[in-house]
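Let us work through a complete example step by step.
Step 1: write down the sequence.
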Amino acid sequence: MSMGEPPLPHRFLFIMKILAFDQSSSKSGYAVFEEGKLVESGVINCSGEQDRDKRFSQMCLKIEANIVNRQPDYVVFEDISLQTNISVVMLLARLQGFIIGVCLNHKIPFEFFKPSSWRKVLGFNQGAGVARKELKKQAKDYVKDYFGILAPEDQCEAICIGWSFILRQKEK
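Step 2: predict the structure and record it as tokens.
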């Protein structure tokens, strides 16, 4: 789903800085692409804070600083998916809303992807019978095979989200 300004034609993606997130309240992966190439990635780690509200606030502040300091031309991130725990869904929805607000406040176009959408672009095996653990492994394997990086799953998924955005724009 696109919001903010409409996406630019793919030829502009290679002069753009794209910031991708695989966000959560404890560990959020991020990846930065410039001119169609991965230039940086990592994990924003707030897992040391036991108080859920404080951890959420810390994550929001760190994500905002990440966006403001990097000044991307476009932000892409994962859409929330159905969870068995409604409080987790609510927390992720709030975090997603926060990211949207930061992007709107800074006039940065953004897009979010359903997990099944970005995984489909990258050719992941998914669907009924494929466990979450296997999906995480596929992301780690993809990043290792295509980018030569061994990294935690949050970082790998952020890389995959950003890369799938670039690949999808190339197809348009």
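Step 3: interpret the result. The chain is about 45% helix and 20% strand.
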